[in-house]
Design brief:
Length: 270
């Protein structure tokens, strides 16, 4: 049986995950009719003594993925300076250490979604994209191959929504939440990367970890036929739409992970 009760619904506007790698800018900004993203959480702070909202827990399972490390290498562009990261007092201290705290927290929250007993995420970088001033990565394969010798199991390119300097005004954000190409252990070939849009906050949920978790799972089942890479439940991290705060590793996801042979690849053996 699943290890959680039905989560709360956070709204009716899903953000699409594209499943087929598209020519950029396929992750273009959305229209004003969609959801609004904020550089901060709109949820009121919980007073002392009040209960936090229920945490959506992943299904835990014993498989060949258990207790294995996954090394992620992050690339950034200059859009981070106008992102929600620049609006967070814990990250925006004007130093590289602040950016590293952001990436560490992003990775940590993503690992919680995936299940810390299922995978152990670690990270390297961040590295500057060769085209850092461009809105989107123009040649992600070039940067991906450049870090092959650094032991990257997968490469993550972070893209951000652009927020105003007041750190208050919401934006329409991107129509798509990211793209991925290839699977784990493919950096030498210039694949095995994901372009992940950390949209900031949708209502009270930080969308970045959930989007990143989705694309990591996609790369972990890269060898399955395209029609088998989705799960029907809206509460699944492999559902084709993002429902903030609701999705997790469900039994459908576990079944696909166990069916895939990606975890048998050499870089997944440590």
């Amino acid at each position: 049986s699943l290890l959680y009760s039905n989560p709360i619904s956070y709204g009716s506007y899903p953000v699409v995950y594209p499943y087929v790698y598209q020519t950029l800018p396929g992750i273009s900004e959305g229209s004003s009719s969609g959801p609004k993203f904020y550089p901060f959480s709109t949820k009121p702070k919980v007073d002392e003594g009040e209960e936090e909202d229920e945490v959506v827990e992943p299904v835990l399972y014993a498989s060949r993925l258990a207790a294995r490390n996954l090394d992620l290498c992050y690339f950034l562009g200059s859009d981070i300076f106008s992102s929600h990261v620049a609006c967070n007092e814990n990250w925006a201290d004007g130093t590289s250490e602040g950016v590293k705290r952001y990436i560490n927290e992003l990775t940590f929250e993503t690992n919680k979604l995936l299940g810390e007993n299922n995978l152990r995420l670690s990270w390297k970088g961040p590295y500057a994209r060769h085209d850092a001033d461009q809105r989107y990565p123009t040649n992600p394969s070039l940067d991906t191959t450049s870090v092959f010798s650094k032991g990257c199991d997968a490469v993550i390119f972070l893209v951000f929504n652009k927020f105003a300097a007041d750190c208050q005004t919401p934006v329409d954000g991107h129509q798509y939440a990211g793209q991925n190409k290839g699977g784990m252990c493919e950096t030498q070939a210039g694949t095995g990367y994901a372009i992940v849009v950390d949209q900031g906050y949708l209502e009270d949920v930080w969308t970045g970890p959930q989007i990143l978790a989705h694309h990591i799972l996609r790369m972990l089942i890269a060898d399955l036929p395209e029609k088998e890479k989705t799960c029907p439940a809206k509460t699944s991290l492999l559902h084709p739409h993002l429902y903030p705060g609701q999705q997790k590793v469900d039994q459908c996801t576990v079944d696909k992970l166990n069916k895939s042979k990606v975890s048998l690849r050499p870089c997944m053996q440590n």
